[in-house]
Amino acid sequence: MSTVGILGVVHDNKLRKRYHLTLEIIKELILEFNPDVICGEVLPDSWEKYKTDPTHRGYWGEPASEYWDLIFPLCEEFKVDFVPIDWVELDVWMDFDPFKNHSELQRSALIAASEQWFQRQLSTWNSSAIPFNSLEYDDITKQKYKWLEQINPESHIFRWECRHLIMIQRINNAINKHLGKRILCIVGADHNHAIYEGLVGNKDIQLVYPLK
User: Fold this and answer.
1) CA 43, CA 89: separation in Å to the nearest integer?
2) Please, are residues 195 and 187 in contact by the beta-carbon 8 Å criterion?
3) How far apart are CA 19 and CA 26, in angstroms?
């Protein structure tokens, strides 16, 4: 039986420092879990670019900074297999902006409301041993995305539901390829609940979330 863990992170270094989920802490959590495989929120094409030229940065679709600054080098150092699991169609991503059909005044109000949801999410940071890895965070996150779905159902399906179906399938493919291994899924914390709900019915794995 494979052991599959989920670790939710934030992509902004200022937020990582402010809410005590720094790269150093993330590294400790990864090493404590001791994965054979890391499934990361990285596009397959971006992973191929990285393998071809690790110095090439600054392009649309680039992995979040924690991959460059920590996860990719750590995988190389400890011989951990890396599997990219994200899915985004970059050429049409902005066409599915959830607020695109609203006036500038309406967009401003919706952006402000979105920021309020984000602050509610951040307010849960100390409700668990690992910031943003908790039922409290996941509950507010699910409420936020229900709100977004009501505003633009088409955008929600494209940016969220289809994306998660593909991410979860890529994780399952990694599980099937690495039977009996320890697999750690590292994603932005907003994805935690969807990844957990997508994997929890798999009887062939031991699912660990939160990690502690």
Assistant:
1) 10
2) yes
3) 12
pLDDT digits (tens, 9 = 90+) for 54-105: 999 999 999 999 999 999 999 999 999 999 999 999 999 999 999 999 999 9
Per the listing, tokens 């409290």 go with 136
From CA 136, how far away is CA 139, in angstroms rounded?
5
How far apart CA 25 and CA 194 sit, in angstroms, is 24
The burial class, CB within 10 Å (0-12 / 13-18 / 19+), for 124 is buried
Structure tokens of 44? 């397959």
Query: What does the DSSP assignment read for 108-130?
Result: HHHHHHHHHHHHHHHTTTTSSSS
Q: What is the pTM of this model?
A: 0.96
Pull the structure tokens for residue 196: 């957990």
Q: What is the dihedral of CA 161, 68, 62, 84, to 10 degrees?
A: -40
User: Amino acid identity of 13?
Assistant: N
What's the pLDDT tens digit per position in 137-179? 999 999 999 999 999 999 999 999 999 999 999 999 999 999 9
Determine phi and psi for 181, rounding to 5 degrees.
-95, 170
Q: How far apart are the first and last CA of the chain?
A: 20
Residue 211 CA to residue 190 CA, distance in Å, equals 16
152 vs 2: CA distance, rounded Å: 38
